[in-house]
Amino acid sequence: MKRSGLAPIVGAAGEILLTEDGGKNWHASKDSGATSLSLFGVDLGSNGGIAVGQSGLILVEDKDGIWQKRDAGLIAYFIGEIRVQDENNYTSEFLPLARKSIADGGGKYVAGGFNKTVAFSGEPPPNRVVIIQFENMDKAKAWYDSPAQKDSHKIGDKFAAFREFIVEGVEQK
User: pTM for this one?
Assistant: First the structure.
């Protein structure tokens, strides 16, 4: 049965309880007592109750043998608009700690720096803008709430004013 907008839920016997169309046709199979999920006829496998699809979809088998979607989520971007008042101390005292917390939290700098932003309309940007990519929104939030990030931010607050937010990416087709 195909019902647009619903994630796949696969029963213990391998039957599809719900499926998502949108160009993706899910097929369940039951082989030698192990439930697995196939997408376009390619076995995505089952490894101790976890099936991972090519697009990053994660299915987890619960205690009752029912597969449930665990959405890894879309890529998320942390945007930092930073008005740095003391560039020397910001660079020497704050940035090394911030960079370590970002790397440890799974973040990756994708754009930004000092005076690297051009405004087309509205208020001019501050003297530093950064964009940091995370695997998903949950990872970005976990990094932002981490003790290492909070500790580094206390130091950064001495040298700059921050406006920060996270934006979820969109599915690429």
Answer: 0.60
Q: How many CA atoms lie within 13 A of 66 on its CB side?
A: 6
Count, residues in the chain: 173
Residue 49 to residue 66: CA distance in whole angstroms: 10
Structural domains in the chain, CATH included, are: 9-70 (no CATH), 76-168 (3.30.70.100)
For 16, list phi and psi in degrees, rounded to 5.
Answer: -80, 120
* pLDDT tens digits for range 13-22: 444 444 444 4
Q: What are phi and psi of 94, to 5 degrees?
A: -90, -50
> If we measure between CA atoms, which residue out of 77, 81, 141, 84 comes closest to residue 109?
77
Asked if residue 13 lies in contact with residue 28, where contact means CB atoms within 8 angstroms, the answer is: no
Distance CA 56, CA 53 (A): 5
